[in-house]
Amino acid sequence: MTYDDYQLLKIEVSRGVARAAVDAPPINVMTLPLFGELMRFGAQVGDDDEVRVVVLSSEDPDFFIAHFDVEAILQFPIDAEPVRAPDNVFHQMCERYRTMPKVTIAQIEGRVGGGGCELVQSFDMRFGVVGRTIINQMEVPLGILPGGGGTQRLPRLVGRGRALEIILGADDLDAETAERWGLLNRALDVDAIGPFVAALAERIASFPRDAIELAKASVDAAELPLEQGLIEEAYLFQKSLRTKGAQQNMRRFLDLGGQTRDAELEMGALSGRLGRRP
What we know:
By secondary structure, the chain is α/β, with parallel strands linked by helices. The protein has helices at 32-46, 70-73, 89-99, 114-121, 150-158, 160-169, 175-181, 190-205, 209-220, 226-241, 244-255, 261-264, 267-274; strands at residues 9-14, 17-22, 53-58, 63-65, 103-108, 111-113, 125-129, 134-136, 173-174, 186-188.
């Protein structure tokens, strides 16, 4: 699959990993054209059988995505009464990244705010840089509220009290605090984030595709009541057991020394070897 006609995203695919870097000077504001490309990329990469992991980053070291375009918001229609409807296109874009059968990773090396922050909240993992990554939900000072999923995703990630502090305080949140609160998986040194994310993405992409997809689906079932979630996990486990990748890799695990003392003491390395083709 080729990724043509993108002006604001730089996209390359290698070894099962699709990397898209936002390049929308001067500060990566999410204008309607950038929003359109992010939405189109999500739809395209979600259907790409060669891709198992998606990494979103930025070409600008200071800005990941500043926020959604306020000038565009001022053009939103306000003549009619508000309605409750399930067809919010921004929500649909975020849900596409959350639910696609790929692993989605946000590599946030600079500022991310507003709608950009809401987008990365829908990703499976988020990594930042100590001393450089800054997170801000800046809507309330504008007289609005986070309308791209932030009021729903943030409490699920950091808890109600901290979500309210982020949203109502609308102040800069540093990487170390974001990591401690669970909004970032890790806060890394600036020289470490690129190699770390690349290694993690390629490691995941080397494992059986069905296992990746089914494991993600099973983790998402944790939003169900526990009894239902356990039923779904048991079903997806049975489904994974019937895949070719599972049968091959379990046998290879034993061939590589699995269930012997020396190999089991280095399980991380042994698991990595399972991702390499013999």
